[in-house]
Amino acid sequence: MMRSLNPTRLRDTILSAAVFGMLLILTSGCEQKTVQRLTIDAPQSLPTASRSFPCTVLVVGKPSINEPLKRQWSARYDSEFNVQATTVETLSENDFKIPQEVDVVVYPSELMIELIHRGRIAELKQSVYESESLNKNDLLTHFRKSGIRYDSKTWAVPCGGPLLSLIYQPEAFAPTKTEMPQTWSELIRWAKRFSEQPIESSANSDEVSTDKSSGMQAIGVPLAEGWAARTFIAVAAPYARQKGRLSVLFQRRTMQPLITSEAFVRAFDELKALAKINPENLNMTPADVLQALVDGNLAAGITWPTSTVTPNSETTTAQTLLVNSLPGSSTYYDESAQAWGTRQSSEPNVVNLHGMVGLLASQTKHSRRPQSAVEFLKWLPESSISQTLFSGDETLGPLRTTHLGDTKAWIGDHYSPEFESTYAKHLKDAHSHALIMTLPKILRYGDYMKVLDTQIRAALTSDLSAEATLQKVASAWEAITKEIGTKTQSDLLRRNSNF
To answer: What is the DSSP letter of 95?
Structure first.
């Protein structure tokens, strides 16, 4: 016998079923709508994944990198990007003022103190220096220390710079089975020996022999305008630089020029000897020296390898060239004691010249888009970006240890594998030396160098003594210092943190 249903319970059951049915319908509709929304909106959300960093950059004295900068930045960010260009001379004439719209300035390293002193650039943000992109531990030592620091602060990111080296043809030195010259005096003796060698003639004709070693009758040293002063300082570096004495061109407290000391007199006499043996040196830049080396016209030369210099003919000695450090000295001139001293056995005899030329990048002091500036400064020294942008410039060089694994990008492919590996080791060793020489960060440093360059070049072809020449330089330097202000210059010099 069937039991009759309670009307109240039946009503509740029917209502529950209706509610459950409604929930199923609503749930199903919501799920379908959600899927449709995600499907429709997904493509529209993709552009937001790449942030926009509009940026304006001022490039000083390097117009060749303007277009590559635009291309590389555009490949990374879909942002407004403007590049302005100016020369060092124009910037200097305008008191180093930077247009208000500029976020980052890329400039020759010698201008850093000018920009700091006038408040044109900002200290490098910790977020940049510690960033994974910059990867400061991968930078070669002196690019992350002396090159970008001043007054115990970091002001820039490095874009690279060269290292003067001794590149030579082993076949020219092979007959005597002697090691490479270790001092400048030894190099001069080699230069004299080469100049006295008769050029061999072919046994069957009056033509000069085509043997590769027969044309190597000289050693090249860059003494052309703009390079004589730099080469002179490189020769003087092992004589003038010693432990504990950081400033070798000026007395740190008084700005008295030290250019007349015996260290520089000795360097001048040796440089003059090299110029006399090969008068062509007075017309040669580092690029000219390198060209003569790869063409087989020099036994050795002071320069550095670049990809911009290639052999002029199919017959070349580039495949047999090797690279060595500059000559050094086991003795140095102690300015305080006014006497020559001997280096400790733990000290390197070679004193490499860093900061001779190079390129830096800094955020402008009044950047209107600081986040864009930060992104640009983290991006610029990235390993692949910096290699792409700067490896084709003859005045720059590798700046990272990762660059040393593939130096062909910087030096070209016409050197031997032995040269490539030796060059990489040479750079690594040079940056590991504790004893280096950098240029002082003082105002109008270019003017001081121009005076030195002019006087050195004039004296190399005259009978003027080293003492008289360097005294003329010292007097001109004192006049420049007085014009700027002795206290201003001495304060800047004492706040150098190059080492």
So the answer is: T
Using alpha carbons, list the distances in angstroms from residue 205 to 202, 208, 236. Answer: 5, 8, 46
Please write the tens of the pLDDT for every residue from 26-39.
444 443 333 333 33
What digits encode the pLDDT tens for the residues 443-484? 999 999 999 999 999 999 999 999 999 999 999 999 999 999
Q: Nearest 5°: CA angle at 449, between 446 and 453?
A: 135
Direct distance between the N- and C-terminal alpha carbons of the chain, in angstroms, rounded to an integer: 107
Q: What are phi and psi of 479, to 5 degrees?
A: -65, -40
**Nearest CA among 263, 250, 261 for reference residue 484:** 250
Separation of alpha carbons 322 and 411, rounded Å: 13
> What's the count of helices (H) and strands (E) in the chain, helices before strands?
18, 15
Sign of CA dihedral 426, 430, 432, 435: positive
Question: Amino acid identity, residue 269?
Answer: D
The neighbour count for residue 48, using CB atoms within 10 Å, is 8
Q: What is the pTM of this model?
A: 0.84
CA 118 to centroid of chain Cα atoms: 23
Cα 145 to chain centroid, rounded = 12
- Is the distance from CB of 490 to CB of 255 less than 8 angstroms? yes
| Helix spans in 306-436 (H) | 370-379, 383-390, 408-411, 417-432
DSSP string, 403-469: GGGGTHHHH-SSS-HHHHHHHHHHHHHHHH-S-EEE----TTHHHHHHHHHHHHHHHHTSS--HHHH
What is the DSSP-derived secondary structure letter of residue 299?
Answer: S
Pairing assessment for the beta strands 165-168 and 300-303 based on DSSP bridges: antiparallel
